[in-house]
Sequence to fold (222 residues):
Amino acid sequence: MSAAKRVGILISGRGSNMVSLLEAMRAGEVPGEAALVVSDRPDAPGLAKAASFGVATAVVPRREYRGRPREEHDRAVHERLEAAGVEIVCLAGYMRILSPWFVERWQGRMINIHPALLPSFPGLHGQRQALEHGARIAGCTVHFVDAEVDHGPIIAQAAVPVLPGDTEETLAARILEQEHRIYPLALRLLCQGRLTIEGRRVLVRDEQIDLPRSLVVPDPSS
Ligand code: GRF
Fold:
C-alpha cells in the first residue's frame, strides 16, 4: 500500500464535513492523514473540533487582509499548507472565493463539497435555492475545484427527495447527512489515486456498480 496522503482541510464554520473526513481517516477508511486544518475565521467552531482529534490548526484571519488583493491571503494559507507537507486540500465550508493563483497551485489536488446537485444551484444557500425553485430532488456534490465557483469536474453526488412541508432547515439536514457520506468517499478515491480527470468527466478506476436505477418524486405509489 502506498503511504497515506497528507490532507489539509480549510474551514470557516462549524466543520461537520471536516469531522466526517477526520473520522474516516482515523478509522482507516481513507488512506490519508490530517496534516492541518486552516480557518479564515478565528471563531470557527470547527477549530476546537479539529483540536479534539489532535490535528494541528492554523488561523489566517481574513480580517487582517481586508482591502488587500485576495491572493495575499491565499499565499499565507498556501505557506501554512506547504509547511505542513499537505498534498491534498479539502474545502469544507470554506466561505472564501479563491484566487486563480491558489486554484492553479492545487488544481487536481483540491476538492469541495456543495449542498446542491451541481450544476444546479451553485453559490450560497444551495438548499434554499432548490426549495424556492420547487425542485423535487435535491442533493450534494463533491467536485474538483477549478477557477469558477462550484464548477469543477464532479467526483460524487447524492440525491435526496424534497418532501412536502420541508423548510430550508429540514432539507439542509437531509442533504447534510449525505454530505457526510460522499465527502469521505470522494476523498478516499482521491487518496487511493483512482480518479482521472478527462475534460469535465471524472473517471473512477475499478468502480463497482450496484446502484438503484432511479429516485422518483413524488412517490409513484401515491
Ligand atoms: C455544507 O453544507 C457544505 O456543503 C457547504 O458549507 C456547509 C458547511 O458545513 N460548502 P460544515 O461546516 O461542514 O458543517
